Every structure is written in structure tokens, then in C-alpha cells.
From TrEMBL, chain A:
GO terms for biological process: peptide transport; transmembrane transport. This is Stage 0 sporulation protein KD. Its main location: membrane. Gene3D superfamilies: P-loop containing nucleotide triphosphate hydrolases (3.40.50.300). SMART domains: AAA. PANTHER family: DIPEPTIDE TRANSPORT ATP-BINDING PROTEIN DPPD, OLIGOPEPTIDE TRANSPORT ATP-BINDING PROTEIN APPD. It is found in: Cell inner membrane. GO terms for molecular function: ATP binding; ATP hydrolysis activity. Residues 4-260 form the ABC transporter domain. PROSITE patterns: ABC_TRANSPORTER_1, ABC_TRANSPORTER_2. Keywords: ATP-binding, Cell membrane, Membrane, Nucleotide-binding, Transport. It comes from the Bacteria.
Automatic annotation (TrEMBL), chain B:
Belongs to the ABC transporter superfamily. InterPro entries: AAA+_ATPase, ABC_transp_ATP-bind, ABC_transporter-like_ATP-bd, ABC_transporter-like_CS, Oligopep_ABC_C, P-loop_NTPase. It comes from Ruegeria denitrificans. SMART domains: AAA. Pfam families: ABC_tran (PF00005), oligo_HPY (PF08352). Keywords: ATP-binding, Nucleotide-binding, Transport. Its main location: membrane. It is a peripheral membrane protein. This is Stage 0 sporulation protein KE. One of its GO terms (molecular function) is ATP hydrolysis activity.
Length: 331, 332
């Protein structure tokens, strides 16, 4: 039984320059306790996809009618996109789904103590009393490795370092016991040593609480260290998905291969760095056919420029959307 | 001063006053007695966590942060300057010879200027060209080297992606034909796919224009692939400094080792092997006694807490600042 099912999610933004397609026909599902890495360059639509799960995109977002997001809770399935009133949305936002943002400084209110922000959300989403909420919050702060939690509880965000703020953010996101945690680049703003601590912490918490995690990042190393499965996005399209070992060891799509080749690796310092040629096109000028054909080094023929590739099986649970697969060629 | 070094610093310190004017007055030492030499034509890397003083060190070498004590010398074979005492015409000339490439290409370019005007501005400000035609020619030449099209020059920065903007900002830094370039986290804001492209561009420009880089970064794998010498900084001091290959093959300082093992491996089966560093970098206003790293070092002894270690060079170009590295080496 899956935790969340996303089917044919298509999302466009109304702007002065016209309709911009941010997410194009994306489908995936996540089981409880599973960690999915969502990888892509900036502008690939990974954050927008994740925010759609809570319908958190701005007012100019238009969801296509065939899009469907179903969240399976103990009380029965919830059709997220059908929720209209903010009151109904509370079940999902901060209740069943919590989110950790990239910039821990910007996501805490500067004029409220960390503690009062933690208590506030617990009072909204649970039937706890203020005292219980306070006790749980302190316990969670302690749980994520913040020493002297009861003092920290009364402090403001500016009094903490980046790593500590990110820990507090995680404590806050987990205190409502969400079914799904969306982590949007949670370690990008942190130093490597702190990043390693936060990754470890998140792994422990998955084991303990058993929630599903969607881990958004552009760092394939972080994905390899945390995720069970990976989905690669490019210009709003999902182009490859599968188990983490499969995708990282046998990447099939030329873009995924390009991302891995571009990564500087420590075991071979002589290996030249291979950039993916060209730049990601503007979403206003989405290429016809396969969205990646403008930068692809393995174009099969005109078919890439005219026809959108469908999914092909390229291994166990491993799917790739590329015309190379139709040709039966190995990339 | 040896003739092969472009930059040589001796006990260079940079401090900033903090606290009130009368009460609690103290100095925050962002860079603390750093002695380094950067050979001409090298790609010199400085790595460290945030708060380690690497940016301030780079700024001090550009004469953009005040040198509190110690000295820094610049010698490119044509001119040589004592960077602490630059003024007037010398300072102007040094500004032409030493340039900076910024981290965030989205914030570093004025949205109201065309790309041509952005790249031409240093030439006009420094009065390096006599006519508009000459300016245009220099701009076209450097734009070509940085792989920008001529039609790009008429556009405004908003029309460009991150990678292209970074190429514009590199072109602007190099148009005055500098000898020394400080690249401060120049690829940190870029996607991996673009990052490799910019690094390759910096390398090829180095060969073509005879540049010396000081490459400041927090990303060890990037540094490993681009630099030929790396210095590891922590709380304003150099912990270890060595030729890249040597440093990555046999790191000696516990901090360097911990930094290496914290890099996430691309192998999904290689999880959780990292040697974890507890805690975080201390505040520079409240420095630990003795070795700066002892609060987080798993091998710290009483001696480490009391005495400050000195940077000790034990083989060609490889220096380390640790009381116990020999012992730890034996134990490994």
C-alpha cells in the first residue's frame, strides 16, 4: 500500500509572458518508510512538484484536470488537489505532510522564539495542551541532538548556528508525527561536516518514525547516501526513475549519465570534468519532442526533435524516458 | 622573497573591532598569523568551513580588508608591492593586476547595464583605453575567450542562465588583463552540470592569459580537481597545506581527514563510514586555547588544550599544524 500516489501531474503558471509549464505529466508513488531522492538542475521543477503535494504553489498555478494526487491516511484516501478551503488543507499541510526548507534562517520567524513556533503548530495540529506541547517540543529538540534543549527552547533563530537551526527545523517538522516529510535541499546551505551530521540524523529518524521522505537535492552524492529510490527531473519532465543502486551505477538516460560524469570525484583526480553541454532552456521556450534534445549528445534522429519519448523498462523497477530505449540500443 | 612566488604572506592577521566603543571592546581575528606563498602560475586552493576566514584572507590579499599585523608581498616580475602600504598610483595599478570573481552571478551583475557595458566598465573606470573603438575591441576579445557570443553583448543580464552569467562575470574580471585572480566560491551557486564547464573555462584561461588563481571553496572535490596546491583553514589559521595530490592521498591533520570523510560518497553501499566530527566551528570571538581545533578533535590531549601548535613543514611543500600527527601516523 503506497503512502502517496501522484498521477499525471501537470502544472502551469499564468504569467505576463504566457503560460509556463513547470511540471509536465509527472507520476510516481512512495511507500511508508521509503526515501525518494528527487534530483535535477535548478529550473527542473523539483521544488514545484514537491510543493504540489501540499498544494502550496502560488495562486497563479493551474493544475491540469487529469492531475491526481492521492494521499492514503488511516482515515481513508485524501484527494489533495480537490481541497479548497485552508481549513480542509490543515489535515495535509503540517499534519500528514511536513516540509523542511533549504534556508533555515529564512524559515523561522525572527521575532518569535523557536519554542513558541514549535508549540504553535502542535496546538493547531494536535489536541495537546500547551504544557504537553512544550514537553514534546523540548523532547524533540533533545532527540535531534541539540544540547541544553530547554534553554534553546526559549531562544530566537538568530542565536543559533546554521546547523543547529536546521536541526530545530527537523525537530519541528517531525513533532506532529507526519506520514510524509518533504526535505527541500536541507543540507545545501550547510558545511560538509554539518551536512554529514544532518544526513545521519535523518536516517536515524526514518528508522525510528517510519515516515516516507522526499529528498530534493542536486547533489547525487547526498542521494546515494540517503535515498532508496531516485527520480531525475529535467525541465518539468521526469526522465528516469528507479532504485538508487540501479540509477547511479547504470544510468540510462544521457542526462543522468551527464550529471554523474560532471560530478568531481575523489578516487580519480585525473579524470577530466565533463560538463553537460549548453544551458537549461528557458521554460518559455520548451523544446518540442524530448525536452533534453537541445543538449543531448546521443540524439537518435529527428524522432528526438518531434516525438515526446514514453517510458521504457531499463531494469528492475527502473524506467527511462528516452528514444534510445525504443531503438533497443544500450546508451 | 623568493623569485617564483607571486604572493608571500608572513604572519598575516586581519582583525575587526567588535563590541562597544569603550566597554567590552575586543578584536575578532578573522585571519590569524597566516604565512603562505602562492607560486606564479599556480591554481592555489583554500578550503574550510564557513567562518574559517578564507574569504577574509582573499580580501586581504586584494587590499579590500585591512591588514592588522604581519605582511603580504606581491611580485609578478614587473612590479612588486608591499600590500600593507599601498597608496596612490601603486594602489591603482595593483587594482588592475589583481581581480575578484564573485560567488553569486545573480547578484554580481547590474540588471540595468548591457553585458557590453558591464564588461567595459573596468576599462573605463581605470582609464585603460583611449577610444571607444579600443574598448569595444578589448570587450569582444575577452568575450570570445569566455565563450560569449557577440550578440550576447547587446543583451541585459536577466536574459542569461547562471552559467552564462558567471562567464560574463569572469570576462569582466579578466578584461583589465590581471595577473592575480581571487575566485571566491565561484562555482558554489551553480548546478553540477554547469560547474564543470566553468572550472574548465578557468583552467583554459589560466593557460592563455598566464593567470595565478587563489581559489576559495568549501567543496573539497572541486578543489581536488582544479587546484595544484591546497591550504586547509580553520578559525583563521592554516591547519595543513600541501600539493593537491599529496594532501588527498595522505592527509595528516585530523581536521583534514574528517573533512575528507564527510564528503558524501557516490556509492550507495558505502554508507555511514564517515568519521563524524562532533559539534561546530567555535565563534572567533571566543577562541579555544591551545590548538584551535581541540574542541572537536577526537585525539586531543592536555598538550593540545594548552599549547598552540605551529605549522611545520616536513616534506616538500607539505606542512601541518598538529602536535600529534606523527604519533597518529604510526597508529594508523
Amino acid at each position: 500500500m503506497s503512502l502517496i500516489d501522484v498521477e499525471n501531474l501537470t502544472l502551469q503558471f499564468k504569467t505576463d509572458e504566457g503560460l509556463i509549464t513547470a511540471v509536465d505529466n509527472v507520476s510516481f508513488s512512495l511507500a511508508p518508510g521509503e526515501v525518494m531522492g528527487l534530483v535535477g538542475e535548478s529550473g527542473s521543477g523539483k521544488s514545484v512538484t514537491a510543493k504540489s503535494l501540499m498544494k502550496l504553489n502560488p495562486g497563479n498555478a493551474v493544475y491540469a484536470p487529469e492531475s491526481r494526487i492521492t494521499l492514503h491516511l488511516d482515515s481513508g484516501p485524501v484527494d489533495v488537489l480537490a481541497l479548497q478551503r485552508p481549513r480542509d488543507m490543515e489535515v495535509v499541510r503540517g499534519g500528514a505532510i511536513s516540509m523542511i526548507f533549504q534556508e533555515p534562517m529564512a524559515s523561522f520567524a525572527p521575532a518569535m522564539t523557536i519554542g513558541s513556533q514549535m508549540v504553535e503548530q502542535l496546538l493547531i495540529h494536535t489536541d495537546m495542551s500547551k504544557k504537553q506541547a512544550r514537553e514534546l517540543s523540548i523532547e524533540m529538540l533533545d532527540r535531534v541532538g541539540i544540547s541544553d534543549a530547554s534553554t534553546r527552547f526559549g531562544q530566537y533563530a538568530f542565536e543559533m548556528s546554521g546547523g543547529m537551526r536546521q536541526r530545530a527545523m527537523i525537530a519541528m517538522a517531525l513533532s506532529t508525527k507526519p506520514k510524509l516529510l518533504i526535505a527541500d535541499e536541507p543540507t545545501t546551505a550547510l558545511d560538509v561536516t554539518i551536512q554529514a551530521q544532518v544526513i545521519d540524523l535523518m536516517k536515524d529518524l526514518v528508522d525510528e518514525f517510519g515516515m516516507g521522505i522526499i529528498f530534493i537535492t542536486h547533489d547525487l552524492g547526498v542521494v546515494a547516501q540517503t535515498a532508496d529510490k531516485v527520480a531525475v527531473m529535467y525541465l518539468g519532465k521526469m526522465i528516469e526513475q528507479g532504485p538508487v543502486r540501479e540509477v547511479i551505477r547504470n544510468p540510462y538516460h544521457p542526462y543522468t549519465q551527464g550529471l554523474i560524469d560532471a560530478l568531481p570525484q575523489l578516487d580519480d583526480l585525473d579524470k577530466p570534468l565533463m560538463p553537460v553541454p549548453g544551458d537549461i532552456p528557458s521554460p518559455l521556450e520548451r523544446p518540442e519532442g524530448c525536452v533534453f534534445h537541445t543538449r543531448c549528445s546521443k540524439i537518435v534522429g529527428d524522432v528526438c526533435k518531434t516525438i515526446v519519448p514514453g517510458w521504457s523498462d531499463t531494469g528492475e523497477d527502473h524506467r527511462t524516458a528516452c528514444h534510445l530505449c525504443d531503438q533497443g540500443q544500450s546508451a | 622573497m623568493s623569485n617564483d612566488n607571486l604572493i608571500e604572506t608572513q604572519d598575516l592577521s586581519v582583525g575587526f573591532p567588535v563590541g562597544g566603543k569603550i566597554f567590552n571592546k575586543s578584536t575578532l581575528m578573522a585571519v590569524n598569523e597566516v604565512s603562505l606563498s602562492i607560486p606564479r602560475g599556480s591554481f592555489f586552493g583554500v578550503v574550510g568551513e564557513s567562518g574559517s576566514g578564507k574569504t577574509t584572507f582573499g580580501r586581504a590579499l586584494l587590499n579590500a580588508a585591512p591588514i592588522t599585523s604581519g605582511s603580504a608581498h606581491y611580485d609578478d616580475g614587473e612590479v612588486n608591492y608591499n600590500l600593507g602600504k599601498l597608496a596612490g598610483a601603486d594602489l591603482k595599478e595593483y587594482r588592475r593586476r589583481a581581480q575578484l570573481i564573485f560567488q553569486d552571478p545573480y547578484a554580481a551583475l547590474s540588471p540595468r547595464m548591457t553585458v557590453r557595458d558591464i564588461i567595459a566598465e573596468p576599462l573605463e573606470v581605470m582609464g585603460l583605453c583611449n577610444s571607444r573603438d579600443e574598448v569595444d575591441e578589448r570587450v569582444r576579445e575577452i568575450a570570445g575567450l569566455c565563450r560569449l557570443n557577440l550578440e550576447h553583448l547587446r543583451r541585459f543580464p536577466h536574459a542569461f542562465s547562471g552559467g552564462q552569467r558567471q562567464r560574463i562575470s569572469i570576462a569582466r574580471a579578466l578584461v583589465s588583463k590581471p595577473r592575480f585572480v581571487v575566485a571566491d566560491e565561484s562555482v558554489a551557486a551553480l548546478d553540477v552540470s554547469i560547474q564543470a564547464d566553468i572550472l574548465n573555462l578557468l583552467k583554459s584561461l589560466q593557460d592563455e592569459m598566464g593567470l595565478t588563481y587563489l581559489f576559495i571553496s568549501h567543496d573539497l572535490s572541486v578543489v581536488a580537481h582544479t587546484c595544484d596546491h591546497v591550504a586547509v583553514m580553520y578559525l583563521g589559521q592554516i591547519m595543513e597545506s600541501a600539493p593537491t595530490r599529496q594532501l588527498f592521498q595522505s592527509p595528516r591533520h585530523p581536521y583534514t581527514k574528517a573533512l575528507f570523510s564527510a564528503i558524501p560518497s557516490l556509492d550507495p553501499d558505502d554508507r555511514g563510514k564517515a568519521q563524524k566530527l562532533e559539534g561546530e566551528i567555535p565563534s572567533p570571538t571566543n577562541r579555544p586555547s591551545g590548538c584551535q581545533f581541540h574542541t572537536r578533535c577526537p585525539f586531543a590531549t592536555d598538550q593540545c588544550r594548552r599549547e598552540e601548535p605551529h605549522l611545520e613543514t616536513f616534506e616538500a611543500g607539505h606542512a601541518v599544524s598538529c602536535h600529534r600527527w606523527r604519533e597518529l601516523e604510526m597508529a594508523d
